[in-house]
Specification:
Blueprint lengths: L9 H29 L3 H34 L4 H32 L7 H33 L6 H22 L1
The chain binds fe (ii) ion (FE2) (2 copies).
Length: 180
C-alpha cells in the first residue's frame, strides 16, 4: 500500500491520500467478507489493525487538512456552488466520523481476536461508510479541489504542508506516549 509522508505539493499529498482511502476501503471490504465466510484468523486480525490505524489516524488527519487548508478558500469563493460544496463536504466529515464510530468497535474487537460483533451489521455499516466516502471524494476531486487549486494558485502553500507534517508528528508522539 502507498505510504504516508507529506510531500512538498499539498494537493499531490491530498490526492495521494484519496488513493490510500480507496485502498483501505477495499482491504476493509475484503476483511469483512473473509470474516463472514472463514471466521477470524491471524491474517484478518493483522488486517483489522492496519485498517483501524489508517481510519483512526490518517483519514482523520486528512479531514483536518481539508478543513484547515482547502475549505476556507472555498467558503470565501464568490461562486455559491463552491461555497455550498464546502459546507456539504464539512458536514460529510461529521457523518463519516459517525459512520466510522459504528465500525470501529467491531474492528477493534477483531484486531484483539474477539468475535462478539455481528458481521451482518458490520457489513451494513461498511456499505454506508463506503458509499458516503466514494461520493465525498468524487465531489472533492471534481469540484472542490479544482476550485481550491485555482483560488490558491498565487498562494505559497509551503506553510500548509509544514503544518500538515508537524500535526502528524505531534499526533504520532501523542499516540506513542499513550502506548508507553
Ligand atoms: Fe473530505
Ligand atoms: Fe478528501
Amino acid at each position: 500500500m502507498t505510504k504516508s509522508t507529506v510531500p512538498p505539493g499539498v494537493f499531490e499529498f491530498l490526492d495521494a491520500t484519496h488513493i490510500r482511502v480507496g485502498e483501505h476501503l477495499q482491504v476493509l471490504r475484503q476483511l469483512v467478507d473473509r470474516i463472514a465466510t472463514d471466521g477470524l484468523d491471524h491474517v484478518s486480525q493483522e488486517r483489522a489493525k492496519e485498517v483501524l490505524d489508517f481510519f483512526a489516524n490518517d483519514a482523520r488527519q486528512h479531514h483536518l487538512d481539508e478543513e484547515k487548508h482547502v475549505f476556507p478558500a472555498l467558503l470565501a469563493s464568490p461562486d455559491p456552488e463552491v461555497v455550498h460544496a464546502a459546507k456539504r463536504l464539512t458536514q460529510d466529515h461529521g457523518w463519516l466520523e459517525e459512520n466510522w464510530l459504528a465500525i470501529e468497535p467491531s474492528l477493534s474487537a477483531a484486531a484483539d481476536g474477539n468475535t462478539w460483533f455481528d458481521v451482518t451489521e458490520l457489513n451494513h455499516a461498511l456499505d454506508v461508510f463506503e458509499a458516503l466516502y466514494q461520493e465525498h471524494i468524487e465531489l472533492e476531486e471534481t469540484l472542490a479541489y479544482p476550485a481550491a487549486r485555482k483560488r490558491l494558485a498565487d498562494v505559497n502553500t509551503d506553510g500548509m504542508g509544514r503544518e500538515m507534517a508537524a500535526r502528524r508528528v505531534a499526533q504520532k508522539a501523542k499516540a506513542h506516549s499513550k502506548r508507553d
